[in-house]
């Protein structure tokens, strides 16, 4: 079949809207009509050539919601007409990691996914006979996409696509980082670096968890109002501040340091500050941000000797098929806010504007509605 898609033909170039050829689903796969997709900073990072796994030409996008239109042989858990959210972190329920109960990082298809291919080692997308690669196993910047059955979460049909697509990455990542990875407890003092599409969800997760201080940090002053909307108690604009001064201020506001800090910037210098502002003896810093290829984190080992912990999280530690439908329910029950964060609604033809708005700090989330 044919599908309209925004294709990343080359790094650092605008996406091009073209009609691609799309092969139907093979055994264990499903064809999904994507109804809406968010634009996450990770898409921008890959398009900007900063992803060590970035492959071109490819169809980016990993934050979608849509409807199953066809299923391949052997597919039993979803059927045509089901509403689904694609999962860049699938859940096979059978691999060592899924069975361990210790992590959401299912390994069933990670190797081929990282190469832009379906589990059988081929792509379903092509353009004028040339292979176009998948991205993060999702490729939601295409109106139709093919996904492994284990990489879709079935969701309730009354959830609007335009807002529930955000649960495919940003909402789940931010809220899950707090509730699943960190397991923030009532009364904990929390510090969040980067109040964008992910960080604001960390803030709403911290509020839900009953955190005491929720200190938001950004270099964009307009993010102060945004943070307050979601439960932030204090704000610090660190533009021009040294690491030492930033840490001293955070230690003062949090009565000795953060119980939990979160990096949602992807900046490795910020990650260091996020670790070092943690409370001596127990504070834990969680890295959410994705750093560009070649970057490394560093700190004095003494920071860890004196009891600070450095951890990370992917997709908020959520097991997609199990947890995503629950998060959709929480949204529909009004326990999680999404609508105000969708600042811009675009057509597929306008998708490059979504990247410009993100880079200019003018959007929280832009969503493309097909
Ligand atoms: P975004 O562009 O919406 O937000 C980033 C925010 O960080 C902005 O408000 C920006 O002003 C702020 N910022 C930038 N530099 C800063 C600095 N030096 N100090 C303080 N604040 C600073 O991006 P997003 O969509 O929220 O994504 C945030 C990061 O999380 C990205 O690196 C993205 O790739 C990553 N991410 C990771 C996961 C995961 O599963 N681990 C999931 C989604 C996104
Ligand atoms: N490809 C990059 C790493 C990118 C990365 O860490 N991705 C996150 C999700 S970001 C969503 O917006 C993730 O899930 N990581 C775990 C995984 O298995 O990819 C690189 O550095 O090579
Ligand atoms: Zn994302």
UniProtKB/TrEMBL annotation:
Its cofactor is Zn(2+). Pfam families: ADH_N, ADH_zinc_N. Its EC number is 1.1.1.284. It comes from the Bacteria. Keywords: Metal-binding, NAD, Oxidoreductase, Zinc. Residues 12-368 form the Enoyl reductase (ER) domain. PANTHER family: ALCOHOL DEHYDROGENASE, ALCOHOL DEHYDROGENASE CLASS-3. Has high formaldehyde dehydrogenase activity in the presence of glutathione and catalyzes the oxidation of normal alcohols in a reaction that is not GSH-dependent. In addition, hemithiolacetals other than those formed from GSH, including omega-thiol fatty acids, also are substrates. Also acts as a S-nitroso-glutathione reductase by catalyzing the NADH-dependent reduction of S-nitrosoglutathione. This is S-(hydroxymethyl)glutathione dehydrogenase. It comes from Aurantiacibacter gilvus. The lineage of its organism: Bacteria, Pseudomonadati, Pseudomonadota, Alphaproteobacteria, Sphingomonadales.
């Amino acid at each position: 079949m044919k599908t309209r898609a925004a294709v990343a033909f080359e790094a650092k170039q605008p996406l091009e809207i073209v009609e691609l050829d799309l092969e139907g689903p093979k055994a264990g796969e499903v064809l999904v009509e994507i109804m809406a997709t968010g634009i996450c900073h990770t898409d921008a990072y890959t398009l900007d050539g900063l992803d060590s796994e970035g492959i071109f030409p490819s169809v980016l996008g990993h934050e979608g919601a849509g409807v199953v239109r066809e299923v391949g042989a052997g597919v039993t858990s979803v059927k045509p007409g089901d509403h689904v959210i694609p999962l860049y972190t699938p859940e096979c329920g059978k691999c060592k990691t899924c069975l361990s109960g210790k992590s959401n990082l299912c390994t069933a298809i990670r190797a081929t996914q990282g190469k832009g291919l379906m589990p059988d080692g081929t792509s379903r997308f092509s353009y004028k006979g040339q292979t176009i690669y998948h991205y993060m196993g999702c490729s939601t910047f295409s109106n139709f996409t093919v996904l492994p059955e284990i990489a879709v979460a079935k969701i309730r049909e009354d959830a609007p696509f335009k807002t529930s697509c955000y649960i495919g990455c940003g909402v789940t990542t931010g809220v899950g980082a707090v509730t699943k990875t960190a397991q923030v407890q009532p009364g904990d003092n929390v510090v969040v670096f980067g109040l964008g599409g992910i960080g604001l969800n960390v803030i709403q997760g911290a509020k839900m968890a009953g955190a005491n201080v929720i200190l938001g940090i950004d270099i964009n002053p307009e993010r102060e109002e945004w943070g307050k909307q979601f439960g932030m108690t204090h704000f610090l604009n660190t533009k021009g501040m040294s690491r030492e001064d930033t840490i001293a201020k955070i230690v003062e506001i949090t009565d000795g340091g953060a119980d939990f800090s979160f990096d949602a910037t992807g900046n490795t210098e910020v990650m260091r500050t996020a670790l070092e502002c943690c409370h001596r003896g127990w504070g834990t810093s969680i890295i959410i941000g994705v750093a560009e290829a070649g970057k490394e984190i560093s700190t004095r080992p003494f920071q860890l000797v004196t009891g600070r912990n450095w951890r990370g999280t992917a997709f908020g530690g959520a097991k997609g098929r199990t947890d995503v439908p629950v998060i959709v329910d929480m949204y529909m029950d009004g326990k999680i806010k999404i609508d105000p964060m969708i600042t811009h609604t675009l057509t597929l033809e306008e998708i490059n504007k979504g990247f410009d708005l993100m880079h200019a700090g003018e959007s929280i989330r832009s969503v493309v509605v097909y």
